[in-house]
């Protein structure tokens, strides 16, 4: 898998839009189940195809020069799915890490896992930690895997750490600032997502990166995740490049 930034492609994407590409793109990869059932296939086949779409998306992100990609691979609410589907998704994640890790490492991809770690299967936890450790020195695309992730849980865990510091007298309450909370989140050190893409026509965040999405641009498309390809990614990037980001201020065009 070649995912190192390709300068020519990066330039052409920027020129096409005449604007800056997002540094960080986050994905809610929705619609695997519908993709499968509409074809009379078991839902698990949709997840299998979803993994192929994920591989292609990572490749394309590297080619166009995106710095950080975050994927919502398993939410803290997904445990409520039927046991067979949960264990299939766990197996898929295991296979993804086992089969793709050396290729991702060779392609200079740095892997980071976000989400709650308490109560996770020890084997999966070990695999994820090994992937993080092996790739920790890499300098290419950063692939952030949101696993057992829920944004409210992430914020509460961060708030508890700060509350304990205040209780222990290590921190004054007025030192509990936006920056201090940001520093305790699983995403510490990462730029906020510039663009959040959700497939399958659903238009909600579903407890994904609630704090970090304060100024993100949203892109919703009707394609089901297994059908999300390089052309669809380019379309989303073009759309992002045409947006006027004001962060609560005025447009540069109005000065
Ligand atoms: C949403 O589709 C997708 C998920 C809950 C899991 C995302 C998983 C993948 C893209 C493939 C595997 C990747 C890894 C790293 C394990 P859905 O099942 O909610 O689809 P539906 O809304 O049509 O039912």
TrEMBL record:
It is an enzyme of class 2 (transferase). HAMAP family: ISPT. Its EC number is 2.5.1.-. Binds 2 magnesium ions per subunit. This is Isoprenyl transferase. InterPro entries: UPP_synth-like, UPP_synth-like_CS, UPP_synth-like_sf. Belongs to the UPP synthase family. The active site is at 30, 78 (proton acceptor). Mg(2+) binds at residues 30, 217. Keywords: Magnesium, Metal-binding, Transferase. GO terms for molecular function: transferase activity. Substrate binds at residues 31-35, 43, 47, 75-77, 79, 81, 198, 204-206. It comes from Roseibium sediminicola. Homodimer. Catalyzes the condensation of isopentenyl diphosphate (IPP) with allylic pyrophosphates generating different type of terpenoids. Its cofactor is Mg(2+).
